[in-house]
Amino acid sequence: MKESNTFRILMFPWLAHGHISPFIELSKRLAKNKFKIYFCSTEINLNFIKESKSFDENSSDHSIELVRLDLPDFPELPPHYHTTKNLPPHLTSTLKLAFRMSKPSFSNILNTLKPDLLIYDVLQSWAAELAAFNSIPSVLFLIIGAANISFFYHGTNCRVSGTNETYPFSEIFFRDYEMKKIIATYQELTKLESEEAEVFKCFELSSDIVLVKSWTEIEGRYIDHLSLCSGKKVVSVGPLNNQDDDTKEEEEQEDNSHIIKFLNSKDESSVVYVSFGSEYFLSKEEREEIAYGLELSNANFIWVVIFPMGHAVALEEALDR
User: Fold this and answer.
1) pLDDT at position 150, please?
2) Is 113 in a helix, a strand, or coil?
3) How do strand 233-236 and strand 64-68 relate by DSSP bridges?
4) Strand (E) positions, the chain?
5) Neighbour order of strands in the sheet with 64-68
6) CA distances in angstroms from 186 to 72, 158, 182, listed in the order given
7) Would you state the pLDDT for residue 241?
8) Where are the beta strands (DSSP E) in 162-261?
9) Long-range contacts of range 105-109, CB-CB < 8 Å, 24 or more positions apart?
10) Which residues contact 95 (CB under 8 A, 6 or more apart)?
């Protein structure tokens, strides 16, 4: 039964921790403003949230209720793989398929909770369609920067419309070798074209506004351009850092004191940080190219190299040096 005078929001991110974390932080801020929040994900992701230091069910987070999404059974995709964390790369497409096939489970959740609003992630327009079928408005929440999205949206819009309008911010562009690789990829994989269409659909289904994890002070012109291209009012929600970041930062500094000492020994703005996220695994060829590039640059650097679970190797072996 719906709580009287309480606006209820269902949050529905993609199954990656890099998406879940900003959705949780936005949920916490909305909960503090007297909204009732339902947070929907798979059981393994919900367990991660419960165990996280940044989430306390007995504190102000009590206005956030965790809701389990059931994925269909795939023999090669047991429940501990219902997340991108530690997911073998070859199972990524299977997880995406299982996620799309969870529509009946998500439909039941909508029918049971009857939220006043759905906030959904990119590449899952089907969730917004189900919400619309149930007369529930929905809003798209982008967890990556406005510059990235506006550049992508502009380029895709040009391809769809057949125009060749130059992106207005010349500092962001594809180099010749990048364009060749993109063109080759489009010729080989029609799946990427469907994902482009999916992004457009996610924008179209968003009710009047689109939320973006960004700052107007830093990305104001990209936010404005994205609004112009998409016909939606793009609203920045800030960086959404963990509110316990100060404590965590002190703990991490103690754990990584050797890195802090290294940085303190270098001049300001003289160290390059290289990372592709916690869930992207570089191939041997990619590692070698990056290593050669860093070597030729003669720059000080910190490079984060991630391997799938059970595949960790020594740095020398990883670089074959």
Assistant:
1) 93
2) helix
3) unpaired
4) 8-12, 36-41, 64-68, 117-120, 138-142, 209-212, 233-236, 271-274, 300-303
5) 64-68, 36-41, 8-12, 117-120, 138-142, 209-212, 233-236
6) 30, 15, 6
7) 74
8) 209-212, 233-236
9) 105/69, 105/70, 105/71, 106/12, 106/40, 106/69, 106/130, 109/10, 109/40, 109/67, 109/69
10) 15, 77, 81, 82, 84, 87
Residues 6+ apart with CB under 8 A from 223: 146, 150, 212, 214, 216, 234, 236
74 DSSP assignment: B
Rounded Cα distance between 48 and 46, Å, is 5
Q: Which tokens is 187 given? A: 């010729």
- Fill in the amino acid letter for 233: K
H or E stretch covering 256: none
Q: What angle do CA 51, 63, 249 make, to 5 degrees?
A: 45
Q: What is the dihedral of CA 49, 54, 57, 59, to 10 degrees?
A: -170
Catalytic amino acids? Answer: 19, 121
User: Which amino acid, 30?
Assistant: L
CA distance from start to end of the chain:
63
Kindly write down the DSSP assignment for every residue of 168-183, as one continuous string: S-TTS---HHHHHHHH
pLDDT along the chain (321 residues), means of 10: 77 95 94 94 95 67 87 96 90 94 97 97 94 97 92 82 85 83 58 69 95 94 95 93 56 69 90 85 88 92 81 58 50
pLDDT number for residue 65? 94
Residues 43/15, Cβ–Cβ less than 8 Å: no
- d(Cα 202, Cα 195) in Å, to the nearest integer? 10
Residue ranges with strand state E in 87-208? 117-120, 138-142
Question: Under a CB-based contact definition with an 8 Å cutoff, are residues 120 and 143 in contact?
Answer: no
Q: Which DSSP state fits 3?
A: P
